[in-house]
Here is the input.
Amino acid sequence: MQDAAAHKLASYVDALRPLISITTFDFQAVDTLIAQVGRGFDIYEYNHADGRIDFRTKAPLQRSDLGTFLALFDTNEPKKIFVVLKDVHESLSNPAIIARLKSIALKSMYSDYYYVTIFLVNSIQVIPPELEKMITIFDIPLPTQAQIQRIIVDYAQGFGLPMAEEVINDLTVSFKGLSEFEIRQILNLAYQESGTIDQNDNALILKEKEQIIKKSGMLEIVVYDSSLSDVGGLAKLKEYLQCKARIFNNLGEAKKFGIDLPKGLLIVGMPGCGKSLTAKATAHLFQVPLLRLDIGKLMGKYVGESEGNLRKAIKTAEAVAPCVLWIDELEKAFAGVGGSGGGSDVTTRLFGNFLTWLQEKESSVYVVATSNDISKLPPEFLRKGRFDELFLVNLPDGEERRTIFEIHLRKRGKLTKSIDTIRLIQETEGFSGADIESVVKEAIETAFFSDQLGVTTEHVLQTIRLTKSISVTLKEKIDELRRVFERFDFKPANEISVRTI
Ligand code: ATP
Here is the structure.
């Protein structure tokens, strides 16, 4: 089952990598792998709860602290052993433990006939900086389609359940992105609930995937009800997304034709002008779930934890793929990286890992990143090839403002022929989409208090006169953003011919 994984792990052992970090909660899968790779080695195991235990039977052997346990192997006699440490992440901030691990690792690298490979198996990734250069991170790969099929067939045979090939194929696709452990758990649950495994279990799989997302804590499923028709203006961007949707919804055919898998896009621009709205509308257009990544939540307190969290978040998004992964306020996450401000080491590493993933991504996770202040973004983001396209969202021009007024009035059942939208757009130069939405809301309230049946042009104009647009309240910021945007060669999201800025 884990041939490719075992092969990769064995190659690390053969290359005398002394410390191998595996972050997972599926300790059973790790044991199977280590046993597979460790033929011919004596395997010693220690876990935080029981001390030293028998690797094969899991019977407790001796309660001792980690330092005493490790000292057993820090001698000059020849050895060829595996040492498996589980749930010891808290001890990895202890200088005595770090020194002991380092001493064993150095012997492994430089002493003849001394082969000790230590596996750090934790559910939280912790990499002490003193050991960073000696630690190899190993990710258990997710099962391939053929492997998933095997898991389902084995499971069904184990319980003597008849399963049509069609059902197996269907479930295989739904299970994509989950670990073997998670797949088995869901199969168990399905079998316990209905005594069978059939097509109806697809819904259960989706629900379980949602659970996994919630538990990951770094991704949030965004419930959206906005479609492209709720976005006023931004014609170029909408046209682009419609093209991408045709590819995204026919990935098999598009790939055969030689089209690359869409990676995603970066939308930068003025605040309150529809960037987030477009992210939601993209998920609607692609008919897939929308996941929001909170980069702030990735930051962990242990060294290496943040990178581990990012990988976990990416793995989770890939489990739910096809999906749209929305990264809001990108500049806040990666501020200072590569620039003169100097981002922290952790942020710089996170950024590097994120870019590598983005570049090499083979999954149908479509990334929509949004940002106001690109001057704070590392320039690497703006280079071609990272995202498929970079779009600039400007303040809406007259025609766009008219559509936005219409959208928000219609949404609230207040769009009538008597409303003179031409007058409204004449009075709203410099207003953002969010400004217009708030004008509409307030005008409706005013109309309600004035006991009139509907909203009139005068109600809206009255509210406009009392409203300070973003171009006034945030004048300096908007001027500064304009200057920054001018320096870059972005594709305008708005129609260019009638631009107002
Ligand atoms: P920020 O950069 O401040 O996060 P944003 O560009 O992401 O802003 P949105 O959150 O998309 O702005 O817009 C806020 C609200 O304003 C939206 O929920 C929507 O109701 C309204 N709005 C903004 N732009 C548009 C638009 N182009 N068409 C229709 N409504 C819009």
About this structure: The CA atoms of residues 98 and 130 lie 7 Å apart.
